[in-house]
Amino acid sequence: MKKLNFLDTGFLLAESREQPMHVGGVALYTLPDGADAQTFLNNIAGIMRDTDTLQPPFGDRLKMGPLGLLGNVHWEADPAMDIDYHIRHSALPGPGRYRELFNLVSRLHSTLLDRKRPLWEMHLIEGLQNRQFAVYTKTHHAAVDGARSIHLSRSMLSNSPDARLQDSPLSTASWERYRATLGERPRRGLSDREIRNVAEVLKARFDSGANLFSAVKRFANAWAGNDDALALPFLKVPRSSINTSIDGARRFVAQTWPFARIHAVGKAFDGTFNDAVLAMCAGALRTYLQNHTELPDESLKAMVPVSLREEGDIDSSNAVAAISADLATNIADPAQRFAAIQASMRAGKAFYKGMSAAEVQAISLLMQVPGMLLMPLGLASRLPPFNTVISNVPGIRETMYWNGARLDGSYPASIVTEGVALNITLVSYDQNVDFGIMACRRSIPQAQRIIDYMEDALTELEDAAGLTSARKTAAPRRSAKAKTKAKPRAKVAPKAKVAATGKAKPKPKPKPKPKPKAKPKAKAKAKAKAKVKTKAKAKAKAKAKARVKPKSAAGKKPTTRPSRKK
Amino acid sequence: MKKLNFLDTGFLLAESREQPMHVGGVALYTLPDGADAQTFLNNIAGIMRDTDTLQPPFGDRLKMGPLGLLGNVHWEADPAMDIDYHIRHSALPGPGRYRELFNLVSRLHSTLLDRKRPLWEMHLIEGLQNRQFAVYTKTHHAAVDGARSIHLSRSMLSNSPDARLQDSPLSTASWERYRATLGERPRRGLSDREIRNVAEVLKARFDSGANLFSAVKRFANAWAGNDDALALPFLKVPRSSINTSIDGARRFVAQTWPFARIHAVGKAFDGTFNDAVLAMCAGALRTYLQNHTELPDESLKAMVPVSLREEGDIDSSNAVAAISADLATNIADPAQRFAAIQASMRAGKAFYKGMSAAEVQAISLLMQVPGMLLMPLGLASRLPPFNTVISNVPGIRETMYWNGARLDGSYPASIVTEGVALNITLVSYDQNVDFGIMACRRSIPQAQRIIDYMEDALTELEDAAGLTSARKTAAPRRSAKAKTKAKPRAKVAPKAKVAATGKAKPKPKPKPKPKPKAKPKAKAKAKAKAKVKTKAKAKAKAKAKARVKPKSAAGKKPTTRPSRKK
Question: I need a surface site. Which of A183, A195, A376, B52 has the fewest CB within 10 A?
């Protein structure tokens, strides 16, 4: 019987009907050529239902003493493991677009896992168009952390379409096989002492309800030996509709962008890929809040986990630090916004300079949980530790297969917490970046708009970086869109029509077309180049844009897989 | 703002993750000729989404003060009514049998309603075979009681396939129109004093945790002026696997029988239709417990709500009394079992003799809630007030239509409570009786078997009543079945095969074929008749049996609509 550590128990304690604490994702696959959907899915379900050798804790349930979650909590083998309960077969209503998929995933992600059983579910979903199927998984954060989830999904995939695994990815055999292929050492866990330091703060709250705010600050300062405001949560965090009391229903939307596009923006501004992601999200959030006439004067802050690994450094390879990034949503100019974001990220990383991997991990865990700590005090929505979470998870950079079915995309489905009603998580996969956006259904009723605004923000950044000269054609389109913002329902009819005619349907295998090779090393250079761009190039850019806009009836969207519109 | 009465609040208080307190059902429809499934369902969804005029409490959410559920609770209009949240579109995975439908309904019934929203959901389900679709509804018991549910479903149905309603059954307009068509006076609610008497007992528990058991007895005796053991819960209630601690997951199965078949058995034994239903269920439970080698020495008791209306009595028309019926599961002989059940039902009704409708209702409410009362004490699974609930709801005795879609069956989905892991509810509809069985997934993993055993029990009763001479052919089949009981998985493969070949698919409109007219007035008479039965008749009977057994590859099941096998 393995004992849960204090943090894992914390995820259970923090859970409520309004705030399920499970993480998961949706993977999109294309059936192997010639395979029958029913047969293939039944076969996969059969493999998944092989329960004899489940690795912990997939066959384990929670075991508590008389103190419940406040006492010691262990994992014990479920004596009546009911695998059919966990492996489920679902289907989408017609016409089987991504819209229907996201609707279903939103619902599935809104329900609590059963605490009397092993804390996971897997849903095989049929009914998608173009020979695709989807797999939605949810696992309690107390059972499996992010790193483990990624290892699990990797262990079941192969870069060969001909590879076949006859045991469940959740089996011990699969895990052992995968572990043997890992070139690097497994992550070192936190030491007892390190956990205890984090635990003490958590405990202080649960035992006494004492002054948590100062405790968190004191703790952070003690670790860091300084007081760098940029890296600490709670400071200068404005309020918005994203930072309200949440309810139990979720909205999930997802979208794919070419990695190269975002990467080029980062490079053009002398920043990182992650800086570009943040700038793209920041621009989208600025537009979203503007359209809800509630853009705060102060900039939004995002909790951003970043890897601190340096070249050749293996030991700290899993040192993921939580940085409270300034999203500069109060800055109108995209280039200036990028610069401000970049500066805050650099300051955030500097904050962790000199810490051991374990120290970084401990303090980062603490930073990620203040929402949990504040909830029992009813403070989270009044004192959000940050406005949102933007998490970039490194993924696999080649095409992968699950028993011959090609993985088309993999979209994270994360947690929203009291006071932080929006989570943006992205995974790089193959030539793409797959974004999964999880939102509280009531607080953010138009989550799907954020996807549109992200594309707008990326275009704006490309324009600012001189990666295109299509800025003039872009401008009127964007303002035309702005006009429709007052009537959210107005978009439904025409889009439904587009979908019905099949024009907006994504291609089964949208191989991303690399953009025309315009890779300026710096902004100035890029601008100079922009001047010599031919008309033909501008046209190509306009075309490329049309592609990612499902509103365009002619759009084929080769680079964007799902796009939920409503 | 309408205040919830104490009982409705009790349903909220009694609710937990393991014990959702919503009721509902699944209605099966056949699409009108020529109608396209997608178009028809979208049209129906559109009608349902007309939110302007929702009748209370379908547009209302709970409003509580600082005391929460322990203080006053009101309904208040939901300021952000999100109708898309409540009206949902779902689909079944292939091959779209009733098995897939029941799987989905089991899952949907297992999740809690969101307390921050109006307490109902409606799921339009596509993907069934034979042009059928299903509608699953769930509504919190605090929001709508059984009588209201029936009125609601009646208000949307018509006996004409050509009738079209353009407003939602949940709209005020629909309700007003329906009320106008009612020939009888609306039900008189309980007076404040009557509610208070019930409430006092409930309160005694919540305030003091005092001796509940004696309080319940005292209360019941005070009302009744006597102490008829047969009609009181808690007395001589044996324990079984049906009476354990429940978890949050459900198994739902459903089946249809011809009304005439069950009615004939009741008549043959000089009993009522309801007596025959109880005998059929009792036989099934006896077999189920025998096969789990845990048949208690003492007979199981069922909580049975019965109508006490007498001919011409309009005032007490809704006086539904709760009787604790002796199911005589310890008696092997079906005729003797029937007699014992009948006697206990008569005694139960006698217990209520001379009470006003309101008195009957008050005491019956109390009898139905002891499970709720015992739960906070953790006693329900150790001291079950009864072993199961068998509830017979009178329905509509003609074919009905919803905007042209023929209603093929209507299966109640009720509540299981701590200590009472099984609920059998039935509705008469058209020429049939539709049974819905709700069970705790863990406590009763083979709920679908109960359906088979009910058919066996009915056959056994028919044989005992001399309604058939096919007893000899029945015996070997039943014992052959008993042999497979030890390996529950053994049945899956052959059944899946049968389904895949389409042989077991139910007909879209299974017009029940009336059985050969053998209506003996009494047992003796019937037996005499049985002697002169021709061989041809026995054959016909054997054939009829084959029909209701989906295992039989040749079976067409014209009289049984859904039958979930696993």
Answer: A183
